[in-house]
């Protein structure tokens, strides 16, 4: 047919050359798309976002309470933009601040973290630590992040975390490391229980001897990594609200689908934002930072959340 209409079929070499050109173009396009996505993911680490949510959880006769939830700062010296944005949150004048760990991502990050927190520490506050406050960061294979919860290797040196704790407690913030606190906030009693980081097995919830009582305006659980064993214990202990961090919201989210991993045993659908665990509300912050060795976020901008606790309907009593 080709000879009949005057078309000369391509030789094998010509076909092979054309195929190679097409393949190279496809690879170039794929590489360019990947590099563009990588560049955007790096830029997104500085797209700080304030989220606002309401949780109807207080007794019907109570006024609202506003709690600023911050997490996973992962401070490195010189992060001026992050520090200034965090400082600006003090202008919101929340009734209280709760920080759920991983303040550090550098052996010299303590002073940077305390500087970023300084205006907020004039407000009532409480905190727990995370694994990155105890151990220095190190490069890891990113593929391991998708194969299950990461592990702290014995070769990672301990950080000097005591000055971080001392700096916050000196401003009156409550250290909730395996502890319970009766916290007066805006004239209301909040009973708070917190644990050390379950991700490195430092949690000891049942070592806290007192149970939650019903005479408080709010019973609050605080933890860095939201492992189910701790969430189950807090829910069984009648916590009304649990605040956690650690997941980075998945850090790399698929638009229209969400998080792929949580770096713990929490369902990825709960990697960011407000959900429920058994009978209590659960808020997981996607956090404000990331490891200095993985400075990328995709479809998951760094965030803090202003949680307005409002009275629940009287018919729910």
Describe the overall structure.
This protein is α/β, with parallel strands linked by helices and 317 residues long. The chain contains 7 helices and 12 strands. The protein has helices at residues 12-44, 80-88, 110-117, 131-134, 142-145, 162-169, 228-236; strands at 49-58, 65-70, 96-100, 125-128, 174-175, 179-185, 188-194, 218-222, 241-244, 273-277, 280-284, 303-311. The strands form 2 sheets. It has a 6-stranded mixed beta sheet, covered by helices on one side. A hairpin with a 2-residue loop joins strand 10 and strand 11 (280-284). It starts with 11 loop residues before the first helix and ends in a 6-residue tail after the last strand.
Termini separation comes to: 85 Å
Low-confidence sequence ranges: none
Helix percent reads 10-25%
Taking strands numbered 1, 2, ... along the chain, how are they ordered across the largest sheet? 1-12-2-3-4-5
Major sheet: 6 strands, mixed
Could you say which overall geometry the principal axes of the C-alpha atoms support? globular
Nearest-angstrom radius of gyration? 24 Å
Report the mean per-residue pLDDT as an integer: 87
